Amino acid sequence: MRKAFLGMLVFLAVGLIWLVSCTTTTKTTGAAVEVRTPAAAEAAGKPKLAEEAAPAAEEVARAEEVPPEKVLFEGEIKPLSPVECARCHYPIYKILKDQGGKHRQVCTNCHEVYHRYNPLRKNWKAIMPKCNKCHGLPHGKAAKECLSCHQEPHSPRRIELASVSGKCALCHKDESETLKTHESAHQDVGCEGCHSDRHGRVPECFECHDEGHIPGQTVKECLSCHNPHMPKDIKSFEGLEVDNRVCGSCHDTEFERLASTTTKHGKQACVFCHNRHGFKPKCEGCHGKPHSAALHKKFPQCLRCHLDPHSLRRPKVSEVQIQGK
Ligand code: HEC
Ligand code: HEC
Ligand code: HEC
Ligand code: HEC
Ligand code: HEC
Ligand code: HEC
Ligand code: HEC
Ligand code: HEC
Ligand code: HEC
Ligand code: HEC
Ligand code: HEC
Ligand code: HEC
Q1: Best mutation site among 225, 227, 232 for ligand 8, i.e. most ligand atoms within 8 A of its Cβ?
Q2: How many CA atoms lie within 13 A of 305 on its CB side?
Q3: Average pLDDT, the chain
Q4: In principle, which of 53, 96, 148, 203 could form an S-S bond with 100, CB 3.0–4.6 Å?
Q5: Which ligand has an atom closest to residue 301 CA?
Q6: Range(s) of the domain holding residue 121
Q7: Would 51 be classed as within a structural domain?
Q8: Nearest C-alpha to atom 17 of ligand 3 is from which residue?
Q9: What total number of domains does the chain contain?
């Protein structure tokens, strides 16, 4: 009884499949014929030309001859999109998606051939994309083995520090020269002493220095005066806003004098007059010669009377040794 029932089901299923396939094939061929007939072209408002009509008629004949299973091999084949490749290569797709940067492209841009690997032919290298096809040799001839540093081509910016260790000068000539040619304690620290952990990491000064010259100084400020690759060559102060206490942390005498004077110099920043480190300006640079020509001729040194630029203290009579009188 059950056997008979199952048999019925199978018969019905086969029948149904046959029916469906029949209707679809008719539809497909039918559609193909419809567009191609001269009648249809005419209906669409196209002029009926003899040349056009003839091939169309031929095609109709051909299409009618084509057995239904051949139609399976007709139609445009589109390359797989990354999402389609991802159905099988999800991990690679995910790396590209998250860290691919500018390599987030159609896979077949790079993989012009794929699924051709055959261990017997040992052809892995031959079928894999070549970086220099698109990039040439961006770091010069000394860095030819791209994958030795760019170990994951689907995440091209990720570089293990170990793979560039000791090779900094290859690509960073300026920084390497600077450090090498300017004597400082940072020479002993070395590139990787500061740029540690990963390639391109920039350290904060406070990783090694407890504090700046005054509390609350920021790294940005440190860098406005110090180039880390030549820390002893202080940059120009031109255009910088520097708290007088910074200079005062080393030049306490000048700082105290300037801080306590009631003259107009007391309102100036150290860097207003000293626009680079160690530079000592001339009074005349700002003031010219404000007194009578006779006085300046007699006393060419302003500080003879004004004593100190930071206090502009008025001299006691005993201090002004008026010579030649
Ligand atoms: C910018 C170029 C580029 C793009 C885009 C790219 N690949 Fe690759 N892919 C490579 C290179 C180069 C290799 C060779 C690595 C090697 O030789 O070890 C590779 C290797 C592979 C491998 C074999 C090695 C492995 O890690 O399993 C697969 C699979 C692969 N890619 C799949 C994909 C898929 C899928 C996509 C798109 C979602 C894609 N690739 C996009 C350049 C690319
Ligand atoms: C239906 C699953 C499937 C799809 C879709 C697929 N692959 Fe693969 N692919 C595989 C399998 C399986 C391997 C072999 C095992 C492996 O390496 O993971 C392979 C290997 C590869 C390899 C390395 C070996 C070789 O012969 O090239 C590359 C490169 C590759 N696929 C790229 C692609 C790209 C690009 C796409 C999309 C255009 C894609 N695959 C789509 C299943 C697939
Ligand atoms: C089919 C061409 C092609 C291949 C092969 C290729 N790349 Fe690229 N790559 C590109 C393009 C295009 C860019 C984007 C360039 C741009 O916008 O400046 C790029 C960008 C990069 C970047 C910068 C990425 C970013 O996000 O800024 C690196 C690094 C890189 N490629 C390394 C490699 C390496 C290493 C290989 C071999 C493993 C390789 N590329 C293979 C086309 C390619
Ligand atoms: C010695 C290690 C090393 C080798 C070998 C190497 N690279 Fe690089 N490459 C790097 C590093 C490090 C970067 C900088 C990555 C970053 O931090 O953005 C880089 C960056 C790039 C960039 C981006 C350029 C830019 O200015 O942003 C491209 C493109 C690139 N490499 C391609 C290649 C190609 C192609 C090869 C092989 C011919 C190659 N690299 C070999 C270490 C290397
Ligand atoms: C093969 C070439 C190459 C080598 C070797 C290399 N770098 Fe780079 N590096 C680059 C490129 C290219 C960039 C620029 C990436 C960019 O524009 O973002 C870079 C960027 C940097 C940056 C700046 C990051 C930023 O945020 O501005 C530092 C710091 C750096 N590298 C330090 C080093 C040190 C230290 C070494 C040696 C341990 C080294 N690099 C080795 C190519 C290289
Ligand atoms: C004492 C720590 C220290 C040492 C040693 C050091 N650096 Fe730097 N480096 C820095 C700091 C801090 C910066 C950030 C400078 C800035 O932003 O003005 C930097 C910036 C860089 C940059 C990026 C430059 C730019 O214009 O963006 C590169 C490249 C670099 N260093 C390479 C090197 C190399 C190569 C060496 C070894 C020869 C080295 N550094 C030694 C601390 C150091
Ligand atoms: C990885 C550790 C490290 C980092 C980061 C570092 N330094 Fe240094 N620096 C040292 C060492 C070690 C010395 C020598 C001992 C000392 O003076 O503390 C030194 C000395 C100096 C000196 C005196 C140089 C000399 O030859 O006497 C200056 C200036 C200096 N550092 C400024 C900076 C600035 C500014 C930064 C941040 C941009 C910085 N350092 C980041 C380790 C570091
Ligand atoms: C306004 C400029 C300026 C700023 C900002 C500045 N420095 Fe300096 N720094 C100097 C000068 C000038 C010297 C003395 C140079 C000399 O001895 O010729 C110096 C010396 C140093 C020294 C050598 C040791 C010492 O005390 O004599 C270290 C270390 C140092 N600075 C670290 C830093 C750090 C860290 C920062 C940020 C927190 C910083 N500096 C910010 C100007 C500055
Ligand atoms: C970390 C200590 C330190 C800091 C901070 C510092 N200096 Fe100096 N300064 C020195 C040293 C050391 C000298 C060298 C003394 C010498 O050559 O006799 C010097 C020299 C000078 C000289 C030349 C002195 C002479 O007799 O020729 C002037 C001017 C000067 N500094 C101004 C400044 C100013 C302005 C600032 C703040 C922007 C500043 N300094 C910050 C340590 C410092
Ligand atoms: C109004 C301008 C002016 C200001 C503001 C000023 N200075 Fe001076 N400073 C001078 C002049 C001018 C000299 C040179 C004096 C001379 O020729 O002997 C000088 C000399 C110095 C010297 C060298 C002292 C010596 O014995 O030769 C130091 C150090 C100094 N200044 C530090 C400072 C500091 C620190 C500040 C801020 C607290 C500061 N100055 C603010 C004008 C100024
Ligand atoms: C970088 C420019 C600069 C330099 C260098 C400079 N001064 Fe001045 N000085 C000023 C300024 C600005 C004032 C205030 C002017 C005002 O507010 O009218 C001033 C004011 C004065 C005053 C009047 C003070 C008061 O309270 O009325 C005297 C005196 C003076 N300077 C003397 C000197 C002498 C002496 C020197 C050299 C040792 C000198 N200055 C160097 C910029 C400078
Ligand atoms: C013989 C002593 C003497 C000499 C030398 C001298 N001064 Fe004076 N200067 C004075 C006296 C006194 C005053 C008025 C009192 C005061 O303001 O301190 C004065 C005032 C000034 C003032 C303020 C003027 C005003 O109008 O507010 C400036 C600026 C000044 N001197 C700059 C200079 C300069 C620059 C030199 C050198 C080129 C110089 N002095 C040389 C004695 C002198």
Answers
A1: 225
A2: 10
A3: 83
A4: 96
A5: 12
A6: 78-132+149-157
A7: no
A8: 102
A9: 2
